[in-house]
């Protein structure tokens, strides 16, 4: 009789817990503590969607202190429970090693399984298999560099990326373009300097193919992949431009280098112009432009000021990666 009473009490508790969908509504209403309690309850019961949701909360620090390692572990558990977004997220994190171990072979094995039912994941796998990589996913060779300027220090790597790789990055970004924004006073507002549309390939969606591309950019810039900020895909339509600016950030971990992949060349205008020297560059599809924001004294070089000139006709696509002095953590 006693055990039956306990069982009935447990059933009553379970029936009183709101469904996970109510937690989403509470989050939207700003009632984070109440929403989190519901999500935690369902995650404790190994609900796949709740595990992923809780992982995303910790990953982003949504209403609680950010904890990437805990978020990653919850993504793993959601993946084990068969949550589709959790499966893809954990594969991505395995390939990059963000917030935990890196296992390139295991990531590719998982990607091969995912590719059987997901066309985009199949494209990623085919792209990686076409790359000339080491066992750890690094490029075996990189093209020779052509120095365009000593000050600022500017280099061009011709055909560093294939047509297929350029088209893949454009495809990846297409559903997620937003007006380029900038953080001012703790708020994200439309970037007054850049009128383009942008898509950020942040860590959670940095798939194995994109990660291999980032490792090639690291090789071209003679840095480690961990020093790079998330890759951005930029789209400039006629009339859109990036006004004269500098990429340098004088923070504790300074932003010192920029790498640009030209994803197409069938447009007019849109040159990358170094405004104080007169150097203008319009790369061909697959070319990479690398320049440094520091001079020989390792301090900010004012000559690195540059602009993305207005596109006259067509649409310009560009992949941009800013690189820090040391490992980057947002």
What does this structure look like?
The chain is of the alpha+beta class. The protein folds into two domains: 2-130, Serine Threonine Protein Phosphatase 5, Tetratricopeptide repeat (Alpha Horseshoe); 145-324, Jelly Rolls. It is 38% helix and 21% strand. It has helices at 2-16, 20-28, 32-44, 48-60, 68-80, 84-96, 104-114, 119-130, 163-173, 208-221, and strands at 145-149, 154-157, 178-179, 181-184, 187-190, 197-201, 231-236, 242-245, 255-262, 268-269, 272-274, 279-281, 288-292, 306-308, 311-313, 316-324. It has an eight-stranded antiparallel beta sheet, covered by helices on one side. α3 (32-44) packs across α4. The longest helix is centred in the N-terminal third of the chain and has 15 residues, at 2-16. The model is unreliable at 1-13 (pLDDT under 50).
Q: Low-confidence stretches at least 5 residues in length (pLDDT < 50)?
A: 1-13
Major sheet strand order: 1-2-13-9-16-7-6-3
Strand elements, count: 16
The percent range for strand residues is 15-25%
Look at the helices and sheets and give the structural class: alpha+beta
Blueprint of the fold:
Layout: H1 2-16, H2 20-28, H3 32-44, H4 48-60, H5 68-80, H6 84-96, H7 104-114, H8 119-130, E1 145-149, E2 154-157, H9 163-173, E3 178-179, E4 181-184, E5 187-190, E6 197-201, H10 208-221, E7 231-236, E8 242-245, E9 255-262, E10 268-269, E11 272-274, E12 279-281, E13 288-292, E14 306-308, E15 311-313, E16 316-324
Antiparallel strand pairs: 1-2, 2-13, 3-6, 4-5, 6-7, 7-16, 8-14, 9-13, 9-16, 10-15, 11-12, 11-14
Helix pairs in contact: 2-3, 3-4, 4-5, 5-6, 6-7, 7-8, 8-10
